[in-house]
Amino acid sequence: LVRRPRNAGSVSLEFAPRRWSLMAGARFVGERPEDDFVFSAINRNNGYENVFVNASFRVTRHVELHVRVDNALDEQYQEVLGYSALSRNAAGGLKLSW
Fold this sequence. Notes:
There is one protein chain. The chain has 98 residues and is an all-beta fold. It is 0% helix and 59% strand. It has no helices and nine strands. The strands form three sheets. The chain has a five-stranded antiparallel β-sheet with strand order 1-2-5-6-9, with no helix packed on it.
């Protein structure tokens, strides 16, 4: 099948002491067949690893800060042939509850 790797998997580890929550993990995708849909030639798309890190800190009972770093190793890869994935990126936020 197009875009279906023969081998894929993920691993993650979480550590949550008291008010902190830390998680790191990786997603592994093996080489897979691709079709360019223009010349009808089947190509191969290289495998890749995507390493991520998440962290959160509960400031009070009602306020929590969090951050996520994706593609932490800044690997250059294409999930779909011809479309590059994002380089290292980060997102953060504030969670309010009552």
